[in-house]
Specification:
By secondary structure, the protein is of the alpha/beta class. The chain has five domains: about 5-85, DNA polymerase, domain 1, CATH 1.10.150.110; about 90-150, Orthogonal Bundle (DNA polymerase, domain 1), CATH 1.10.150; about 155-255, Beta Polymerase, domain 2, CATH 3.30.460.10; about 265-335, Beta Polymerase, domain 3 (2-Layer Sandwich); about 340-575, Alpha-Beta Barrel (TIM Barrel), CATH 3.20.20. It has 25 helices and 16 strands. The strands form four sheets. It has a seven-stranded parallel beta sheet with strand order 10-11-12-13-14-15-16, covered by helices on one side. The longest helix has 18 residues, at about 135-150. Bound molecules: 2'-deoxyguanosine-5'-triphosphate, calcium ion (CA) and zinc ion. Zinc ion binds near residues 419, 444, 446, 473 and 474.
């Protein structure tokens, strides 16, 4: 067990202890030790064998014993018991906005609530509002949260699913007897939200692999444990320590079946239907195990061989949504999709000058570490008080600091941008002379989300038509699984952008992924230039860019459709910035 797994178990224990009403100091000790271990530079197994665990801050006698058991045996009976006596409904309740362990405990103690159905009934009868510490407003919020869960099902964001899936995948790869391991389903297709994680393994001996899977430390519940398929509910925390629960299915096949199973379980269902039909046209039968009837001379080592046998170019998983990829593959006109490596820098990022967590220099260092050739800083504009938008005076000061930093860099450049608010009538939050002091302008809507469609559309188009605006930020304002897009005629917006040559952002922040991939395809057809931006508020959030590349790929985009694939000198030329 590595340090991140140990840390995850300790943090989980902290949460469960809190849910069971344990002394908060005791619960917190586990959380603190977990965080300390996650940040260790050394291997946790080495520390255990050297007997130096108690040098880690916060690790006393009890924790030392528990961590040693966990690292040496891979199990912790104390943790298993704790999980066994925790109703899964408590964990589901934690997903509701504003609901913490204390509230869950109170609902359980006073009203016997241990699942979402009982919670809903208690809200509808008004019992929850009467509880101490709750009230009518909380009760209303809970009901709204429950309605949202109903509507969305139990989907989670792609980044949350990836955070849970990646360690499981790494674990499966290291199991003895495992030949190949791959993610399938919507995670492999990089859909923006995920219902469940699908994992495929090839091996000659499935049983021990199934056993190891259902005993993973973050398994909350075993839903099925069969010979070729098992399902579990996994728990984890995301990047912002929000709780995530998601089901994962594991299928084990033999290695010759692997390409067919991989293709089938990657989906989408609609793509599979088209593939099966294509096989029938050749007089063959395609299923999750084989392409029956195909000539024996055809070898199927991997998935590409299936497409080849059907005279199709290989279709990348992101395109498998039956939106024309089969015809394109047959006609050899599939797009040459851009990749993360093509990205040369990003433009929409925040620092401590507004609501970011890091300085200009820290953000620049992180961008350089990623191999970026430039970083655009676009802090909030003056009217966005909640995000410490910059006054004209502070804009000047920030730009001065950027000049000083740029003087130090030889092969890297900070670009002076702003995320300028689009005001209610579509005018911009700075005067033209201030706008002219920036290298580029990202224009975004942050207020008055409930304007009628015509008003919002006209507002955004007016901003797009402003000559100082380089790109439109997060075009629809949606927050995945949380807030719907505002009402806007996106097609009219895209047409305006095509007319004026304004770029449209693919906001790569996994909470947004806005522009949606469906509209990327439309933007490409209209000749609109896209730009992928992480909207990073901290150095590690620059890595969000990968999710934007996923969106771009699902939207059929090639390198030339995305502005920030250009070289530093081409970007400078376009922005009219010269070396000083
Ligand atoms: P989701 O909802 O985020 O889990 O999306 P998927 O695509 O992962 O859907 P899932 O987990 O229900 O199934 C995984 C894949 O298995 C799916 O993409 C295609 C394949 N599959 C599942 N059920 C069927 C089916 O009834 N017919 C066909 N042709 N394929 C299926
Ligand atoms: Ca799935
Ligand atoms: Zn914004």
């Amino acid at each position: 067990m590595d340090k991140s797994e140990v840390a995850a178990v300790l943090e989980e224990i902290a949460l469960l202890l809190e849910l069971h009403g344990e002394n908060p100091f005791r619960a917190n000790a586990y959380a603190k030790a977990g965080r300390a271990i996650a940040q260790l530079e050394t291997n946790i197994a080495d520390i255990v064998s050297a007997g130096t665990l108690d040098q880690i801050p916060g690790v006393g006698e009890t924790l030392r014993e528990k961590i040693t058991t966990l690292v040496t045996t891979g199990k912790l009976p104390f943790f298993d018991d704790l999980k066994a006596k925790t109703p899964p409904g408590w964990l589901q309740m934690l997903r509701l906005p504003g609901m913490g362990p204390k509230k869950v405990k109170a609902l359980s103690d006073s009203l016997g609530i241990d699942d979402l159905e009982k919670l809903k009934a208690a809200c509808e009868s008004g019992d929850v509002a009467k509880l101490k510490g709750f009230g009518a407003k909380t009760q209303k919020n809970i009901l709204e949260g429950l309605a949202f869960i109903d509507q969305m099902g139990n989907r989670v964001r792609l980044d949350q699913a990836m955070m849970i899936a990646e360690p499981v995948l790494a674990f499966m790869r290291n199991l003895p007897g495992v030949q190949r391991v791959e993610l399938c389903g919507s995670v492999r297709r990089r859909k923006e939200t995920i219902k469940d994680i699908d994992i495929l393994v090839s091996s000659d001996d499935a049983a021990p692999i199934m056993d190891a899977f259902v005993k993973l430390p973050n398994v909350q519940k075993v839903i099925g444990h069969g010979e070729t398929k098992s399902s579990v509910m996994l728990a984890g925390a995301d990047h912002h320590a929000s709780r995530v629960l998601i089901n994962a299915d594991l299928r084990v096949v033999n290695d010759s079946q692997f390409p067919f199973a991989l293709n089938y379980f990657t989906g989408s269902k609609e793509h599979n239907v088209r593939m099966r039909q294509r096989a029938i046209d050749y007089g063959w039968k395609l299923n999750e195990y084989e392409l029956a009837g195909a000539p024996k001379s055809l070898l199927f080592n991997d998935e590409t061989d299936i497409y080849k046998a059907l005279d199709l170019d290989y279709v990348p998983p992101e395109l498998r949504e039956d939106t024309g990829e089969m015809d394109a593959a047959a006609g050899h006109v599939l797009p040459d999709l851009l990749t993360l490596k093509d990205i040369t820098g990003v433009f929409h990022n925040h620092t401590t000058w507004s609501d970011g967590a890091a300085s200009l220099e820290q953000m620049a260092d992180a961008a350089r570490a990623l191999g970026y050739r430039y970083l655009g800083i676009a802090d909030h504009s003056r009217s966005l008080g909640v995000a410490h938008g910059l006054s004209v005076e502070r804009v000047k000061n920030q730009q001065g600091e950027m000049d000083a930093l740029n003087a130090k860099y030889k092969d890297f450049r900070l670009f002076k941008g702003t995320e300028c608010d689009i005001l209610a009538d579509g005018s911009l939050d700075y005067d033209d002379d201030v706008l002219a002091s920036f290298d580029y302008v990202v224009a975004s809507v942050h207020t008055l989300f409930n304007q009628p469609l015509e008003e919002m559309t006209a507002r955004i188009i007016r901003a797009i038509e402003h000559p100082a605006v380089t790109m439109l930020g997060h075009a629809t304002g949606r927050l995945l699984l949380r807030r719907d897009a505002y009402k806007v005629d996106l097609d009219a917006v895209l047409q305006a952008a095509a007319r004026t040559g304004t770029m449209i952002e693919i906001n790569a922040n996994p909470y947004r992924l806005d522009l949606d991939w469906v509209h990327c395809k439309r933007a490409k057809a209209l000749g609109v230039m896209l730009v992928i931006n992480p909207d990073a508020h901290a150095p590690d959030e620059l890595a969000y860019t990968r999710f934007g590349v996923d969106v771009a790929r699902r939207g059929w985009l090639e390198k030339q459709n995305v502005f920030n694939t250009r070289s530093l000198s081409d970007v400078m030329k376009y922005l009219g910035v010269s070396f000083v």
